[in-house]
Design a protein that fits this description.
With 386 residues, the chain is an alpha/beta fold. Helix content is 47%, strand content 12%. It contains 16 helices and twelve strands. The strands form two sheets. A nine-stranded mixed beta sheet has the order 1-2-6-5-4-3-7-8-9, sandwiched between helices. The protein has a three-stranded antiparallel beta sheet with strand order 10-12-11. The termini are far apart.
Amino acid sequence: MSVEEDPGERLLDRVFLTRVIEPGDEIAGRWVREFGVEGVARRLREGEEALPGVSDKRWAGLLARAGRAEPGQDLAAARACGVRFICPGHTEWPGQLDDLGDARPLGLWVRGLPHLRMWALRSVAVVGARACTEYGAHMAATLAAGLAERGWVVVSGGAYGVDGAAHRGALGAGGATVAVLACGVDRPYPRGHTQLITRIAEQGLVVGELPPGEHPTPSRFVLRNRVIAALTRGTLVVEAAYRSGSLVTARAAQRLGRYTMGVPGPATSGLSAGVHELLRQDAVLVTDAAEVVELVGDMGELAPDRRGPVVPRDLLDAAALRVLAALPGRGAATADEIARGAQTTPDDAIARLYELRALGYVERHGDGWKLTRQSMISVRGGRHGC
């Protein structure tokens, strides 16, 4: 029988568990659901009887971690650097994280002033390759800036490449951005992004599941991606190779029923191969922020219709276009010949020809009519595709 989540559960027990249990551990999540946070914390502290579903070796490892955990010190260290801890039941907790089920975070460490739950309600993840191309960085920054200008929060992982470009694009547009880290939020990673992550903390939010001082590992990067996917309305992948971690985020978003989007790149680019595979499955192709918002936004937030430039021929009515199309590509034709080609009467054809002459499309040569040099290329191109 499940133990109901109690918003008043001791905060120190959850902080304790974030030090002992790795992010995304579904076995531990089931313990919390069945025995409650206090029950799990007590069993780990006492260490007498192992919780179900783990080997003796793993239980011993958890007990060793539990023996070193100091939740009071973690909270004090967090407060010292302006970090707060939120958990399920807290007013700032984003409810969409509950969609992760037993893989839901035990809590989140948050650095920055804005209200995470309110920001997450209108947010989009922009992720992609660390070793991105110039095109990828440009698209990430442009898309993020466009989303920020439309009032959307840009969420990413703070990494090099597409992540960093997305954060900078949102900040440069004076918008909101959230960095979800795979380490303690008090120690920016990668170190080369210390200035960027510090700026995000000043203007936006830096969040993570791990307590102060914790370092990133490959598995923590992968598991961090599920939080990015769950926190946002949709995930946009800008550039990704076949084995890119950003595809993990996109697939997590698909499992959660979130929107997944991809930006196309050159067919010859290995860094776009993963995105193209995603697009061949269930993702939606997007090229600008308006198309992203049309997908993830509210009813009526539509992208503008896409069409080529308006050319003078577009302004002609259907009858005039038929007469124009009936003229030969080379040489002249009589009004009778043009009328037959346009399936109209000679009088109507002559009237349309004089109209077209006034507009510069045709000219008269004796008893015949021919295309002007100026219009010949466009008319032939439209008719023959050459």
